[in-house]
């Protein structure tokens, strides 16, 4: 670019642009505090400022600069001294004016053009010219309107003509009830507010057409006087072609400013009401910015551009013709910026440029000012040069800072912009925070900032990590503002970065860090779901993210939040919706966010359900045997209807039972139904979709068909016999619907085929069979069954051939012979029985055979009867699965459907020997270092005479490799064998089988291992294990002869499933177990050996130790007061009872002395009557042994207090009562039963 001297000025401008761009960075506020800066306007009121007369007027003007600027104002181009007007004040540290009109002053007194100037020692900045105007909402002029009379069909215009306001009012038509008047293609409001009727109708008559004007700034509404319209129909109005009411003529033009809204309007008169359409003759109407409004009468284009200029045609037409109008649209433009001037910071002797480029139509005029003065009136500066829309500065000097204004204007408006030139000499400063950490997602661009300031503009370089070399080239991009960009970040790009800013006044550097993170990805996105109503649905959203980032997952429905419903349960990686409804259908989006990135995935949920029941069933086109059915389908619930099922109910024959009639495709809603006579039909329809059937529709009205003769005869007509002399004729009866009428009967016809010419017939009803008796055995008959009802017979039936009943065969097969094929298979031969002896249809032959006995003396049991069936054409058959070496018997019979005939003569045959079955058992009974002893038993199924046994064996190692196979034969009478000279500690595998002359049978296998060495006989480790219980606990003692030094005592509660408790023994042969619970039994054992090695441990036999129940402390109760009182009471009670007993005894006589042995009789064999316990006169019965109280029904004597007799209470020895006769006896201890007298007392 610098190599082209012919374009030096352009190169200079580009270079200056590069220098300017380098300083376009946000400056640190702390930095700005120490730097001088010319004023900059930061906030101002709009150019057209309409104020509310009821509020104070506030005109904004805010600016910044260093030092802080001061403010002044001009009014209508001259200085405005605010100090002279007490109603006007300026806010502190601001240029904003506040005009107080609350005291009654009028706002229109302050209507003027205001401009604010902000200035400090470096220059002055200007605001826009602010035009202050008071908003106005004038009243409607008082006027009275005469009623408007219009002929029906004519056009009509009701004028609004609202008062001019500031800003203009919004117009609308209402009645006196504040209800908007209805509008349509026929009646509509124009852009000017008038109400247009393309043609009036009688219904348009009303007395309250009112136009309202709403003034938005003051929020007031003004009302026009009501207009009355009276529509008459005195004479008919002819239809007419359209004519435009607005605009007039066929051509018009309209100008619109760029960026504003273009509204074109065409309203037509006509009968019928015309339709309006729009076209652009010189191009196309912009689709996205254009809209048709007011029933196509208004074309509205927003944000107008120069391309919207051209000719627009509106057309209005009805059936009588059409009319056109062309509107030429021209687009003008107030000035707008192409490149607004920007602030310029230069170092002394630097070069720069300020550019002010604007467009408009007409082309704007550019005027420059400096600090508010026209540039031509400003102080001369040799470093400044004005060229049209640019000011070029070269080798600027300190002190030449200023604010320049660019004014671009044409007849439609103006633009004003401030741009300062600030001449500074500053060393570089890096403004980015030190040690800032940037985090970026892998494969995305990274932007590392190095915001700087300096004058002259510093040069920025970047280094990474060790600063071994300056960064340059791919993958790095260096921006003019100092930012380092890495287009595609990779893990290797992470680390420490250093930016260095240099100019001729110094150097500054800063360190930043870059961390490259793994991207967040949805690995398993939600999938499309089709779910039935009331079911649950699950959307998955499995996410992978960088471990150092914390993700958050949210779910959206149709782009918005999930419904506030407990049925929606969002988890970290899924969304569950329980019991879905149709309102849940939509698109669900899983959004996963981290602090650096996000990922999202969507899936649609379609909720399907059974279709709703069809409705509106209607019967049409009635016929004798048909009708047309139509219906309206119900809601399909997102699943297309596959078919409709039509059902019927016959109220005459099967009321309440619905049967399927026909099906039609889901695309049809009508069906032609074929019906039967003599039925009362009701129909209903069910719809079927992918989910299932709908509920049945409401039944149709009943449709009745007239009766008729049967259309068909019974089906499944058969003739067969159940006895040898009958014929049973059966059929499937007609249903009530098939009967076609009342009085259904069946005519049954039969005749013997080839013998009888005439038919025998009988009429029956309500049955499905008829029995013909006295027929010959098994002869063919022709059979027919014909239906008839009260309206006539059915069609002629077809004859069916049947046979009368069969009888048992009368002859047995002859020439029966048996050929034994092998030990398990024999073949039987026979001759056919004569055909006449079959007496029916021959089904075949049966061979009945059984095993009578085995030829072996050890097995002679009889087998079960077995049989094999063969076809009627067979004369031989094989009998499989026979037992070898056995005797069988058999006979052969012929059979038909009635049963078997007589048996042939019994034939016997023998089966030869076969191979034997497996031995009954085979096992290794003993093992030694080099020998193994084997035992076995003969097979249960010998299948012949055993000739011996075969033993084969071979070695097997741990990897299942086998050695050579050795074989030996053994005699049949042997049952064991010992194999010698085997390898020690070796596994052998044996195969053992029995054999007959036919060969060896199946073998049994077994494996065994010879032992490694002979273990010496082990002496028991423990002996004499015993226990004793004391107050200190349970003492366990033992003898031990083993080598182990560690001994333990283990114990557990008897019959419990808890673990054994262990206590270590300290070198003795006894141990006391403490803390055992009284009244419980414990199993105890002594253990020797380590607790870790279970195999080396030795245990003694288990010992059962029982601890007695806890005994209360002994107390001498004889000294206790309560015991003395109790004993005294008992003694007194006994004394009273004895006195009563003696008194009764004296009344009834005395007892004789009984023999000593009588007192010891067995009470178990001496039953007692109920009155035996009473005391009466002594009789001969009293000479019998004394009896105790009655034994309970259980046969046992209860052990209760009755046993504690006085005899038991006394010491051993003789006990006598006095000689009063009450009791005399001799007792020895407690060997005899107590006296009944004493039992009754105690």
From TrEMBL:
Ranges of Basic and acidic residues composition bias in the record = 1152-1172
Sorted alphabetically, the keyword list is:
Cell adhesion, Cell membrane, Cell projection, Disulfide bond, Glycoprotein, Immunoglobulin domain, Membrane, Repeat, Signal, Transmembrane, Transmembrane helix
Q: Where is this region: Disordered?
A: 697-721, 853-876, 1152-1242
- Name a single GO biological process: brain development
Q: Which residues form the Fibronectin type-III domain?
A: 613-708, 710-807, 812-914, 918-1015, 1019-1109
Q: Per its record, what are the GO molecular function terms? A: cell-cell adhesion mediator activity
Work out whether the entry's keyword set contains Hydrolase. Answer: no
Domain Ig-like spans what residues? Answer: 39-127, 138-228, 242-330, 335-422, 428-515, 519-606
GO CC list: cell surface; growth cone; plasma membrane
Q: Does the keyword Secreted apply?
A: no
Topological relation to the membrane, as annotated: Single-pass type I membrane protein
Q: Where is this protein localized, as stated in its record?
A: Cell membrane; Cell projection, Growth cone
Name the principal localization, coarsely classed.
membrane
Task: Note the InterPro entries from the entry.
Answer: FN3_dom (IPR003961), FN3_sf (IPR036116), Ig-like_dom (IPR007110), Ig-like_dom_sf (IPR036179), Ig-like_fold (IPR013783), Ig/MHC_CS (IPR003006), Ig_I-set (IPR013098), Ig_sub (IPR003599)
Pfam families named among the record's database cross-references: Bravo_FIGEY, fn3, I-set, Ig_3
Query: Entry's SMART domains?
Result: FN3, IG, IGc2
Transmembrane regions: 1122-1143
Q: What subunit structure does UniProt give?
A: Interacts with SHTN1; the interaction occurs in axonal growth cones. Interacts with isoform 2 of BSG.
- Name of this chain's protein: Neural cell adhesion molecule L1
